[in-house]
Design brief:
mainly beta; 4-stranded antiparallel sheet; globular
Length: 118
């Protein structure tokens, strides 16, 4: 019986680790890997699915005043946009210049900093 509190990514043959080709981020006290819009945490003989928590550091607030130099004002986040998608709370954010962007109407909200390790 498992005591893991996170859902497991089933049938995941890829070995995450240093130089595996996926972006590594600091997630609390461990490292997770951004993989096709998922946040993977190698855990024993399996891979857990993680989400970035909504916190004071990474809120889910609307910030229409946010001006980011990480992309043009008319940039649209989504598959193939050039920014990696990560699960944050109940939504998807995109990593842009060390912080989380959430597309919201005609602007991007700043959902706080993220530490990218590779």
């Amino acid at each position: 019986m498992s005591t893991c509190n996170h859902p497991q990514h089933q049938n995941h043959d890829h070995q995450h680790g240093k130089n595996c080709g996926h972006t590594a981020i600091q997630h609390g006290d461990h490292i997770c890997y951004v993989h096709d819009g998922h946040l993977h945490y190698p855990h024993g003989e399996h891979v857990d699915e993680h989400r970035l928590e909504v916190t004071d550091k990474n809120p889910d607030a609307c910030t229409p005043e946010h001006q980011c130099s990480g992309h043009d004002a008319d940039h649209v986040h989504g598959p193939g946009c050039g920014h990696e998608a990560v699960p944050h709370g109940d939504h998807i954010c995109y990593i842009v210049d060390g912080h989380l962007h959430y597309p919201h109407g005609d602007h991007c909200d700043n959902h706080g900093p993220i530490t990218v390790l590779s």
